[in-house]
Amino acid sequence: MKALVLSVVFALTAVVNAVSGNSIKDFAYNSEKQENGVETQTVYKVKEGKYLERHLQYNYTRDEKGRVSAKEILKWNQDNSRFEKQYCLNFSYTDNEVSVEYVAWSSKAGDYTNVKAKAVYQTNENGMNYMAYNRNEKGNL
Description:
Strand content: over 45%
Distance between the termini: 29 Å
CATH class of the domain at 37-134: Mainly Beta
CATH architecture of the domain at 37-134: Beta Barrel
Structural class: mainly beta
Largest sheet: 8 strands, antiparallel
Radius of gyration: 17 Å
Order of helices and strands: HEEEEEEEE
């Protein structure tokens, strides 16, 4: 069941990319595994077909079962020549459910404290349910 859902997601992504004109050759990727187990993927924009310009960096943390438990997204700042934290996706798993929490970086607090949204994917005998929650001005989901 999970393989079917993932296949559909990948197929839809390919169709959206084809229709929107996104080209895979516009970006280059470099993946590295750190000593602490974090996998880092750096995304470069390809300029004029031969120059690489830093764009994004993804840091993946995995749980004991090898599943992604967090995906941290950093964006390149040309002014200070470094990647700056933007947001993090936190994943939690149960037998029939995957929850994804979107948390924005707070430079004031120096941590991911601003929960913006949450998505819950549940599998059941009829297929899959998807529920999305957004925070309101009061901070409630």
